[in-house]
């Protein structure tokens, strides 16, 4: 090959352990070179027309990429003249790692060869390769850029997704699981969120920079403009525009969908009755397997919250695209696709929120371990050391009371968690009443003053006191402590009214379960007064908001500020 060689490049300076002090002209390849990469004792060159050649010596890792000798079967470790690397055509870029090589062709396929002990070749093993092998895990993606940092490899797809594999020392790969030492096949970088990456940059061979294009500026990213002929009528122009918007929407939705599949929490559970129609069948292997109930029970709450944030970000991005196309002609199908994607994300987000709410209730219930360490749940002999038994019961009662207060402030995300919360409250109230009853029995056993109706009345009293906590003033102080921000005073008051009414409705709902929440020893009048107090507080909240609206010159109906039927009955309709 060197017979018709032409001047290719000058070389000087340092690389690896080699030093060339004066520029040295290389005349090896008989055609122009687009790029070269340097090994310790070899050179790999990329020709202008896309062929790849190598020459030099590499007996350890196979970076020459020349495979094995057909006669001896031994790896080819030396080439005095440039040799074509078989299997590589129309190559657009080559990258050199510490001891491995990566090549990208014009159809977005990635090939690797050389050393593989850190998984840097991406073939799901740690074996060396003596000739280029296609990275099969990326077959479903069109790669537009490759990058290498020592023994770590990166690939950027045309949809803006980054894949990484190889050595993960100091989390060079940018994985969510920072404890992985190496990754043997490409995985998508979920921590990059919904942003579309447009370019990768390597700084000082140790820092990775991913240049992103925000969702609102995605227009024009790899777009192909469709320009209808001038002599067509307006209807045809609209059709062309609609087709172009459909293409853009499909590209963006596909990108968002790929990101959605990598968010494990929130996806549907694989049920036994699904059979061959499993939702995760054919999905990317990076998902970590099908979702199970056990996963949601054991996952860290922070991961659930992170999944919720990612899902909400996808919803916001899709809603932004939906608003952009809202008034465009010929985009009905675009809006249909976006609406389906938004609904899918919202359903998954609701599932995550439901899981978070249920976990909060379960955690509150399990925090009763302190109570379990106090052996006061059974009083066998009411006549033996009653004071000691009373002391133990009161100690457990304090723990249960604290648990009840924690459960009351948990915000349920749906009707199931709401019913679970109310049931848990009723259970805790029954447990507290049982303890108070035991205390009264122990007092009676010692001929001390006791009243069997007191335990039930204490529950009514606790509910009454809770209503005071639901006042707008108390909720206002909580907002101040938590430093919640609102657009204006109107929104602030509306939020306070809504939260107060939700808490009061919770108590009214418990009151409806009379067979559980009412006690036969307590006169019905006590429960009636409690219920009337709750209804009056709701009316007061609504009227305060109503007065504010009228003060600002807004003519609104009572229903729009939460005035219910009791208020209408007293006022004879809207004021």
Question: Any overview of this molecule?
Answer:
This protein is 42% helix and 18% strand. It is an alpha+beta fold.
Jot down its keywords.
575 residues, four-stranded antiparallel β-sheet, 18% strand, disordered C terminus
Oligomer: single chain
N/C terminus separation? 97 Å
> Low-confidence stretches at least 5 residues in length (pLDDT < 50)?
216-232, 276-288, 374-383, 556-575
Q: What shape does the CA trace take?
A: elongated
Helicity level:
40-55%
Q: Based on DSSP secondary structure assignment, what is the total number of beta strands?
A: 16
Which band does the percent of strand residues land in? 15-25%
Helix count equals 13
Structural class designation: alpha+beta
| Element pattern in H and E | EEEEEEEEEEEEEEEEHHHHHHHHHHHHH
The strand order across the widest sheet is: 3-4-5-6
Main beta sheet: 4 strands, antiparallel
Q: What's the average pLDDT?
A: 79
Radius of gyration: 35 Å
């Amino acid at each position: 090959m060197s017979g018709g060689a032409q001047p290719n490049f000058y070389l000087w300076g340092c690389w690896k352990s080699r030093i060339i002090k004066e520029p040295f002209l290389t005349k090896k390849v008989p055609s122009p070179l687009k790029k070269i990469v340097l090994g310790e004792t070899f050179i790999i060159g990329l020709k202008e027309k896309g062929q790849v050649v190598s020459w030099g010596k590499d007996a350890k890792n196979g970076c020459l990429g020349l495979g094995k000798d057909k006669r001896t079967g031994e790896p080819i470790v030396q080439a005095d003249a440039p040799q074509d690397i078989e299997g590589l055509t129309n190559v657009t870029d080559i990258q050199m790692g510490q001891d491995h090589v990566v090549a990208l062709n014009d159809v977005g396929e990635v090939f690797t060869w050389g050393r593989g002990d850190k998984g840097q070749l991406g073939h799901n093993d740690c074996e060396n390769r003596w000739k280029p092998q296609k990275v099969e895990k990326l077959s479903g993606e069109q790669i537009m850029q490759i990058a290498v940092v020592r023994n770590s490899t990166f690939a950027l797809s045309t949809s803006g997704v980054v894949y990484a594999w190889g050595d993960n020392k100091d989390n060079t790969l940018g994985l969510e699981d920072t404890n992985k030492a190496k990754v043997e096949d490409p995985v998508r970088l979920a921590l990059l969120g919904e942003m579309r990456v447009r370019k990768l940059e390597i700084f000082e061979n140790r820092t990775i920079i991913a240049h992103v294009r925000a969702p609102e500026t995605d227009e024009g990213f790899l777009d192909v403009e469709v320009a209808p002929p001038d002599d067509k009528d307006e209807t045809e122009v609209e059709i062309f525009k609609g087709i172009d918007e459909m293409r853009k929407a499909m590209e963006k939705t596909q990108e968002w969908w790929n990101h959605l599949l990598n968010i494990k929490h929130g996806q549907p559970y694989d049920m036994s009755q699904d059979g061959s129609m499993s939702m995760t069948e054919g999905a990317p292997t990076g998902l970590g397997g099908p979702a199970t109930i056990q996963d949601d029970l054991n996952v860290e709450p922070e991961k659930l919250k992170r999944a919720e944030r990612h899902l909400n970000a996808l919803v916001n991005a899709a809603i932004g695209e939906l608003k952009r196309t809202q008034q465009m002609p010929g985009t009905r199908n675009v809006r249909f696709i976006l609406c389906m994607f938004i609904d899918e994300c919202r359903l998954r987000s609701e599932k995550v929120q439901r899981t978070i709410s249920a976990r909060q209730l379960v955690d509150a219930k399990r925090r009763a371990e302190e109570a379990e360490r106090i052996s006061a749940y059974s009083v066998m002999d009411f006549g033996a050391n009653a004071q000691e038994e009373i002391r133990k019961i009161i100690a457990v009662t304090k723990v249960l009371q604290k648990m009840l207060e924690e459960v009351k402030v948990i915000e349920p995300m749906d009707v199931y968690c709401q019913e679970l919360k109310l049931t848990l409250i009723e259970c805790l109230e029954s447990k507290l009443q049982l303890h108070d009853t035991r205390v009264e029995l122990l007092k009676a056993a010692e001929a001390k003053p006791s009243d069997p109706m007191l335990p039930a009345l204490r529950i009514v009293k606790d509910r009454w006191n809770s209503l005071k906590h639901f006042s707008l003033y108390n909720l206002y102080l909580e907002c101040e402590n938590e430093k919640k921000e609102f657009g204006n005073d109107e929104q602030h008051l509306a939020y306070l009214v809504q939260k107060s009414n939700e808490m009061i409705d919770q108590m009214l709902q418990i009151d409806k379960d009379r067979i559980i929440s009412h006690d036969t020893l307590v006169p019905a009048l006590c429960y009636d007064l409690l219920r009337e107090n709750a209804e009056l507080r709701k009316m007061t909240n609504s009227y305060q908001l109503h007065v504010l609206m009228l003060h600002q010159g807004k003519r609104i109906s009572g229903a729009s500020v939460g005035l219910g039927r009791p208020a209408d009955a007293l006022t004879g309709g809207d004021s």
